[in-house]
Specification:
38% strand; 73 residues; Ribosomal_bL28_sf; two-stranded antiparallel ribbon; two-stranded antiparallel sheet; ribosomal protein; mainly beta; 1 helix
Length: 73
């Protein structure tokens, strides 16, 4: 499973790291993804969500006492 945000689809971006001599080497910028348990239908499932979606409440987190459904891939 790729590390992509469940809500907004944010994924790593790629570019060049530039040294003092401006020599280019490839690098990637990863989004701040957290593994959280979210409400999915009647049950819950564990997904990757970026912190900007968590702070904006775009992902419905599971509260204590909610029944969990078996995870399907």
């Amino acid at each position: 499973m790729a590390k992509v945000c469940y809500s907004c689809g944010k994924k790593p971006s790629f570019g060049n790291a530039r040294s003092h001599s401006l020599r280019a080497t490839r690098r990637r910028w990863n989004p701040n993804l957290q593994k959280v348990r979210v409400q999915s239908g009647a049950g819950s499932r564990r997904v990757w969500a970026c912190t900007s979606c968590l702070k904006a409440f775009k992902v419905q987190k599971v509260t204590a006492g909610t029944p969990t459904a078996p995870e399907t891939v």
